[in-house]
Amino acid sequence: MTKPDLVFLDDLAVGAEYRSAEHVLDVQQIIDFARQFDPQPFHMDENAAKSTLFQGLVASGWHTAAITMKLLVGSLPLSNGIVGAGGEAQWPRATRPGDRLHVMSKILDIAPSRSKQDRGMVTVECLTLNQDDEVCQRLVTKLVVFRRPQA
Fold first, then answer.
1. Which stretches of the chain are assigned E, i.e. beta strand?
2. SS3 71
3. pLDDT tier at 1 (50, 70, 90 boundaries)?
4. Calculated CA dihedral for residues 144, 148, 149, 151, nearest 10 degrees
5. Does the pLDDT value for residue 15 go beyond 80?
């Protein structure tokens, strides 16, 4: 696998879109994550999950967020990493075993810093979509993005 070119503030444009690779979610991943980080019956027990709001096993929203982060790192190779400065997450649809997730990111705003000339704030909308292009997570986040170093 080749390493993608690093992206700096100067390379970004409002409206630019980035598509990630895919991640297939299975039952064991859902259960393993839930055991460690979100131990609720609808994330850990297929039978118990049938009688819940979800009517079946679902991934934790935090698991979906973690997968989103993994996919973002590969698809939006920011020069100094993806450094969050706040945001809002929504989970309009449950993520389920067998879902094939990918992330579509869109640059919404770019605001160069007035006090620190080497960086700026970038607002990005990240939609985590399943194989049917249904939104499982919507994240709008502000990222600290650095400028290309001066020669």
1. 17-19, 23-24, 83-90, 100-112, 119-129, 135-146
2. helix
3. very low
4. -170
5. yes
Write down the pTM of the prediction. 0.92
The structural domains of the chain, with segments of one domain joined by +, span 9-26+59-146
Question: Which CATH code fits 9-26+59-146?
Answer: 3.10.129.10
Distances (CA, A) of 108 to 54, 56, 101, 136, 143: 32, 35, 22, 20, 11
Q: What is the pLDDT of residues 75-131, one digit of tens each?
A: 998 988 898 899 999 999 999 999 999 999 999 999 999 999 999 999 999 999 999
Strands (E) located in 74-134: 83-90, 100-112, 119-129
List phi, psi (to 5°) of 141: -135, 155
Distance CA 108, CA 102 (A): 19
